[in-house]
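Title: Prediction job returns without error message
Component: structure pipeline
Severity: low
Priority: P3
Assignee: unassigned

Description:
Job completed but the reporter wants confirmation the result is attached to the right record. Sequence as submitted:
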Amino acid sequence: MTYEGEGPNAYRVRAARPTNTTSTSLQAQMEFALSTAARLAARLEATKRFGDDDWEEGTVIRFDKVFTYGGKTYAYAMLKAGGLWYSTGPRAPKAFTWEEMIAWLLEGPHATTEMWVVSEYTNIDEYLNR
């Protein structure tokens, strides 16, 4: 440690920290870019898996979502109405476009990759009186 100045006006001068060389910095940037590209490619493939929004009005989709590593699994349903998708849960009553819904399904540490389409409905009176 070196000091500059004299008496009560003296102060410490820290040694300069080593800095990355240009090649080290470029290597780190390249590794980050490759990692980002790999994540984006995986997300593109997952997005393609869901396809286009050609679902009929009134379609109900059910899926599970996990928000944190080792976290609890939450069940959701989404209803298509007026060309948009409406979700149960804390995001309700927000309306999602198909692209926004898929982006939400894929975000977080555990991307949602399975959805179920509700294809059978039971009248509540029939259900209660069975």
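Comment from assignee: result matches the submitted record. The chain has a mean pLDDT of 79.
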